[in-house]
Specification:
- Keywords: Cell cycle, Cell division, Cell inner membrane, Cell membrane, Cell shape, Cell wall biogenesis/degradation, Glycosyltransferase, Membrane, Peptidoglycan synthesis, Transferase, Transmembrane, Transmembrane helix.
- InterPro entries: Cell_cycle_FtsW-rel_CS, FtsW, FtsW/RodA.
- By secondary structure, this protein is mostly helical.
- It has 15 helices and three strands.
- A hairpin with a 2-residue loop joins strand 2 and strand 3.
- It is globular, with a radius of gyration of 21 Å.
- The protein starts with 22 loop residues before the first helix and ends with a helix.
Length: 391
């Protein structure tokens, strides 16, 4: 198994186009992780004192998660993409087993059974299921591309797999992850060449199903109505959103200064997880918000660009998977930012690589490592091809 070249400080000075891996992608990921560590450190002080009588309770855990992420990423980087393609169905079966297991022996937090307790850490199978589904879909689209493009059967088969995962996720319940799976699956099918009529029909059906799922659960209806006008009930159903909006309002152009947030002092629930973006807006202002959005946008663009170039180079599996990761990252960013700013209903989705959360951080770090590996293999093979031509 071929290893990636060892990391050293001189890679900062070498031109990106002459390097064997994408330095920009690595720097982007590390920059977002660093911003996440700083913001979690600031946003979690009050919660850490309340939960563990330690202002740095969540900071220490987040730091450990980051170290584990770096170790996991180093391992994932060594796995050839051929192995992901070979074992994608096994990975999906493992995710299905974990989703079933969490319903039986999972840990319940805030009325949702989403976590499996593994010693010091809680693992969220929903995050693993996202990556597992996208690795499987990429393999399916390679095997059944003609069928997807020409028959409803080929279009509906991957949706049936997604529906199995979605059913188990709704049992937890976790509608946010279901929406991420649905949107990313649609995006991957569209890129693979599914007919527009099929695509539009499924979008309309998906919208109808989501509306039905919202109507069936009173707490979801409250979330939607409070999102439309949170000030109608600022101390009830609209409380979290109004506090988030006040955080953005206090931030202005340049923020109150790092560490000077008022909303993190037990006013804004989930300040270090789902609503860390609001605290970032309060402390760093519009400039900090814009910087993080640009970094997230750049990361998603890099993923889509990698997918495009490897697809054009004939690497279909890697191309579809990179595109899926790009859609996943960009959509989850939109949902998290939209929920924090009042543009979308509140959903329990983290801001990629920034929010506190072990499972999300680990899986997204692994996804970035897969992107680096895809780009590495493409560059390596193209370099070898040029060397052969030169000879």
């Amino acid at each position: 198994m071929k290893l990636l070249p060892a990391f050293s400080m001189d890679w900062l000075l070498r031109p990106s186009q002459g390097h064997i891996y994408d330095r920009q992608l690595v720097i982007l990921s590390l920059a977002l992780m660093a911003i996440g560590l700083v913001m979690v450190s600031s946003a979690s002080i009050a919660e850490g004192i309340a939960v563990g009588d330690d202002a740095f309770f969540f900071v220490k855990r987040h730091g450990i998660f980051l170290l584990v992420c770096l170790f996991l990423s180093a391992l994932v980087l060594q796995i050839p993409m051929a192995r992901w393609q070979q074992y994608n169905a096994s990975f999906l079966i493992l995710a299905l087993i974990m989703l079933m297991l969490v319903l039986v022996v999972g840990r319940e937090i805030n009325g949702s059974k989403r976590w499996l307790a593994l010693g010091l850490f809680n693992v969220q199978p929903a995050e693993i299921a996202k990556l597992a589904l996208f690795t499987f879909l990429a393999g399916f689209l390679v095997r059944k591309q003609d069928e997807v493009r020409s028959h409803w059967k080929g279009f509906l088969k991957p949706l049936a797999v997604m529906s199995m995962l979605s059913f188990l996720l709704l049992m937890q319940p976790d509608l946010g992850s279901v929406v991420v799976l649905f949107v990313t699956t649609l995006g991957m099918l569209f890129i693979a060449g599914a007919r527009m009529g099929q695509f539009i029909s499924l979008v309309l059906l998906g919208m109808a199903l989501v509306a039905g799922l919202i109507a069936m659960a009173p707490y979801r209806v409250k979330r939607v109505t409070s999102f439309l006008n949170p000030w109608d009930d600022p101390f009830g159903s609209g409380y979290q959103l109004t506090q988030s909006l006040m955080a953005f309002g206090r931030g202005g152009w340049f923020g109150e200064g790092l560490g000077n947030s008022i909303q993190k002092l037990e006013y804004l629930p989930e300040a270090h997880t789902d609503f860390v973006f609001a605290i970032l807006g309060e402390e760093l202002g519009f400039t900090g918000v814009l910087l993080v959005l640009l970094l997230q946008c750049w990361l998603a663009f890099k993923a889509l660009r990698i997918g495009q170039k490897v697809l054009m180079g004939g690497r279909q599996y890697e191309g579809y998977l990179a595109m899926g990761i790009g859609i996943w990252f960009s959509f989850q960013t939109v949902v998290n930012v939209g929920a924090a700013s009042g543009m979308l209903p509140t959903k329990g989705l983290t801001l990629p690589l920034v929010s506190y959360g072990g499972s999300s951080l680990l899986v997204m770090s692994a996804a970035v490592a897969i992107l680096v590996r895809i780009d590495f293999e493409w560059r390596r093979d193209n370099m070898q091809a040029r060397q052969r031509e030169a000879l």
